[in-house]
Recover the amino acids of this structure.
DNA sequence: CTAACGTACAACCAAATGGTTGTAGATGGG
DNA sequence: CCCATCTACAACCATTTGGTTGTACGTTAG
């Protein structure tokens, strides 16, 4: 997963309204206007939240007549969990050879020699 | 975990620089100025990123002389994972534990026989 | 003591975020 | 067809975010 994808994923999750939308849309069948009745904000504001979730890959939209049905992607949490796993794996794998990397300047980084 | 705590947690994770700081500080012993040498930005900017991570409970700081050593909280990822679990648990409660299972295996549409 | 280092923090700025209202385009019902 | 509904999107505004620079303060080295 790219850095930007992880950015979008965690950013989308970092808002209580959006997390609530995710919970409400697991069953699908929720139109955006129906959703917007649940929150103390305008239809357009909810539309924007849904757009953020969609760009993050957390929900999908499906047309039914003039309505747009929102559905939480069942694998959404799995992907977020994987992003956390990659974070954790990265640091565990790096731990033993970290000290050299830390001491170096990005400018004059020469992997063949280093403090030890 | 409160909504605000989850907000702070995911917001802190939604930035590539901050995720990199987490990776670099697992071993501890990194001063903020040492850290700031690794990024193309000012010391003050890195200081702010560390503050965001600290408010989210992802790192702790410890004084050593005039330095401030940053260390990633070993339980940090665990807490993020728990936040995801709570999200998912809320789904299950609302869904009556059916739709996700059905989506995976349309064949086993008998809930009395499903796993779990 | 003085100088250099590491940190803290304030002031400032551009861009993004989260909200609003208004307008316009599809779609379905009578 | 006409109208109400649902959606899309633009323009606008206040606040936050992510960066900068500058200044002040504590600590260590000489």
């Amino acid at each position: 997963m790219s850095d930007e994808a992880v950015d979008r994923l965690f950013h989308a999750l970092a808002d209580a309204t959006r997390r609530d939308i995710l919970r409400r849309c697991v069953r699908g069948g929720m139109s955006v206007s129906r959703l917007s009745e649940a929150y103390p904000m305008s239809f357009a504001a909810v539309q924007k939240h849904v757009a953020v979730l969609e760009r993050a890959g957390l929900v999908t939209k499906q047309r039914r007549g003039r309505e747009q049905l929102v559905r939480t992607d069942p694998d959404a949490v799995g992907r977020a969990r994987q992003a956390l796993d990659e974070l954790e794996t990265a640091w565990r794998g790096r731990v033993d050879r970290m000290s050299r990397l830390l001491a170096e300047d990005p400018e004059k980084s020469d992997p063949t020699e280093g403090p030890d």
Remarks:
- The interface with chain B takes residues 3, 6-11, 13-16, 19, 22-24, 26-27, 72, 74, 77, 80-81, 84, 87-88, 90-92, 94-95, 98-99, 102, 105-106 of chain A (CB under 8 Å).
- The CA atoms of residues 3 and 31 of chain A lie 31 Å apart.
- The first helix of chain A runs from residue 3 to 13.
- Residues 95-116 of chain A have pLDDT under 50 and may be disordered.
